[in-house]
């Protein structure tokens, strides 16, 4: 199955650049935008931090209490003291359980709201980006960013942030208590720290790069799967299931290879750190045992010291693990906030001009020259034409002549770098996108329906429309004829992309949607080119009603659909080469006559 070309980027009309082969490793500063999103929840985060601090303090107090418990039992043989200390321990752990519950509850609730708002903002931002952006990025990749990468950030704000804080407190508190218990043993215990820090520094960059590579390959694989699902009929009609499955398997193998490489780096990282940390504990045990034999330490003090040593060792090991997760989070944050920082190439003007009401529908192209990028071929060359209010103009020409580009420029999906496009005498770049696109109705060659009901799809133009208005629009589009035969009529679900409907039915739903929108300008972009004769007849009948009283641009490759036009424009090689009525152009023996003879040889011979 052919893949979508990646020659265009979100530079749009202003420029196009290829995606770089090498990826920049994201810096830790990529998490800063996430911190700014946490500010509205600073009270909840502060409460969770206090709960965490007190809970960690209780944990750090545990070895000290155990010391007194053991000394009361083995050194002083004091049973009442032993009982009191045991009750104190039980009370401390009960308080710690309540604190842990509150901390997890408050922090998770805040993190869920932050992540939901981040996903909401990311989706709202992506949906507003210019079409050029989506010619470069596959939808599967973007949904992977919305799901996988944002989930990684959620993990950072809940489990990882909590554990990082907890382990830092254990490390610092453990070092302080070690020093207070026995300074000489503390020096032995902390001798391993520089080795661990150096190991973390050496492995950190490689782990960050490996983690970013895994996420990128997962996004690529999900993009391919999404593309195959979206084109499932094409895949199956060409019996390419095995090829697509093999392609996906290859990409999954790339994911596995990258993940295994990351696992090797992480495994070596953790192995070295574990050996250093617990090797240090063995030395402490040996040296502490000698101090007990020399009666310089009580058994309770040695156990206390060992507890704190284990706290420090476990904290160092956990921080190493969290460091690896942190590198993954940095990569995820970089990708998410990079998308949020992407600016659309088509934006509202700072001070938009109000479109006069009612909109007359006067459309002009004046000396428009357009290319999709500075290094790409020019699509339109000095194109000038006029559609008067209520006039029906057809734009015809061979494939690749630039017809659909003209439709995209009217709706300002791309901006014109040279020349002007005006609506009612106002440059479309000076109008708000809401005004401009609200005044233009587009019926594409392959209308995209959503997976909801028939009513949802027709009312997409006006979600607040009544059933009466929806039915009226459906009748005008000759869609009610088949809708009333559906199992649930307007409430019938059409399936993803409208797969439960035929091409002609989808097209009439699209026309009904434009009827409900009631625009001043209608653009029909190859609206009947893929239909059979009966469907074409019904759609043409619907379009006859739609075009009444509206300025219309009919873009067509099949010339049978353009005879209703008041005037025909012939576009060839990006230039308007002919203009006139059907009869005039047919008599002129130019491009239009040649196209007509190819499509209708018998009729052309008769004339």
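Sequence proposed for the structure above (607 residues):
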């Amino acid at each position: 199955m052919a893949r979508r070309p990646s020659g265009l980027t979100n530079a749009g009309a202003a420029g196009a650049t290829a995606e770089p082969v090498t990826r920049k490793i994201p810096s830790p500063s990529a998490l800063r935008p996430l911190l700014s999103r946490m500010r509205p929840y600073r009270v909840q985060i502060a409460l969770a931090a206090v709960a965490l601090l007190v809970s960690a303090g209780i944990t750090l107090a545990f070895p000290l209490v155990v010391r007194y418990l053991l000394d009361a039992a083995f050194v002083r043989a004091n049973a009442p003291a032993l009982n009191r200390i045991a009750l104190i321990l039980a009370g401390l752990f009960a308080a710690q359980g309540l604190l842990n519950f509150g901390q997890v509850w408050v922090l998770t609730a805040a993190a869920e709201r932050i992540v939901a708002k981040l996903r909401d903002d990311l989706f709202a931002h992506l949906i507003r980006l210019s079409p050029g952006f989506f010619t470069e990025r596959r939808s599967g990749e973007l949904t992977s960013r919305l799901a996988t990468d944002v989930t990684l950030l959620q993990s950072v704000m809940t489990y990882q942030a909590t554990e990082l804080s907890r382990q830092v407190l254990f490390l610092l508190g453990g070092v302080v208590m070690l020093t207070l218990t026995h300074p000489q043993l503390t020096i032995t215990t902390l001798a391993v720290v520089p080795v661990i820090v150096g190991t973390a520094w050496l492995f950190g960059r490689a782990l960050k790069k490996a983690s970013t590579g895994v996420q990128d390959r997962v996004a690529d694989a999900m993009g391919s799967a999404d593309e195959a699902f979206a084109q499932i009929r094409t895949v199956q009609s060409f019996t390419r299931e095995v090829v697509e499955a093999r392609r996906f398997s290859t990409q999954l193998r790339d994911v596995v290879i990258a993940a295994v490489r990351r696992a090797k780096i992480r495994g070596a990282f953790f192995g070295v750190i574990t050996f250093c940390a617990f090797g240090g504990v063995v030395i402490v045990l040996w040296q502490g045992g000698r101090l007990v034999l020399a009666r310089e330490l009580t058994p309770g003090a040695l156990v206390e010291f060992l507890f704190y040593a284990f706290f420090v060792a476990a904290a160092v090991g956990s921080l190493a693990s969290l460091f690896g997760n942190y590198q993954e989070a940095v990569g995820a944050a970089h990708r998410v906030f990079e998308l949020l920082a992407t600016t659309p190439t088509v934006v509202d003007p700072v001070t938009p001009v109000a479109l006069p009401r009612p909109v007359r529908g006067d459309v002009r192209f004046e000396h428009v020259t357009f290319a999709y990028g500075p290094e790409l071929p020019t699509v339109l060359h000095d194109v000038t034409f006029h559609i008067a209010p209520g006039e029906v103009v057809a734009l015809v020409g061979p494939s690749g002549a630039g017809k659909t580009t003209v439709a995209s420029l009217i709706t300002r999906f791309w901006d014109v770098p040279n020349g002007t496009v005006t609506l009612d005498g106002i440059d479309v770049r000076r109008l708000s996108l809401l005004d401009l696109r609200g005044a233009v109705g587009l019926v594409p060659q392959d209308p995209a329906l959503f997976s909801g009901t028939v009513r949802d799809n027709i009312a997409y133009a006006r979600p607040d429309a009544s059933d009466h208005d929806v039915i009226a629009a459906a009748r005008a589009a000759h869609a009610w004829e088949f809708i009333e035969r559906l199992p649930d009529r307007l409430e019938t679900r059409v399936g993803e992309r409208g797969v439960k409907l035929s091409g002609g039915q989808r097209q009439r739903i699209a026309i009904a949607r434009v009827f409900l929108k009631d625009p001043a300008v209608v653009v029909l972009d190859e609206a009947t080119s893929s239909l059979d004769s009966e469907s074409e007849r019904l759609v043409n009948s619907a379009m006859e009603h739609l075009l009444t009283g509206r300025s219309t641009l009919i873009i067509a490759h099949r010339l049978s659909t353009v005879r209703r036009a008041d005037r025909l424009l012939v576009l060839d090689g990006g230039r308007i080469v002919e203009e006139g009525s059907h009869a005039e152009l047919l008599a002129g023996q130019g491009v239009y006559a040649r196209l007509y003879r190819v499509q209708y040889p018998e009729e052309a011979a008769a004339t």
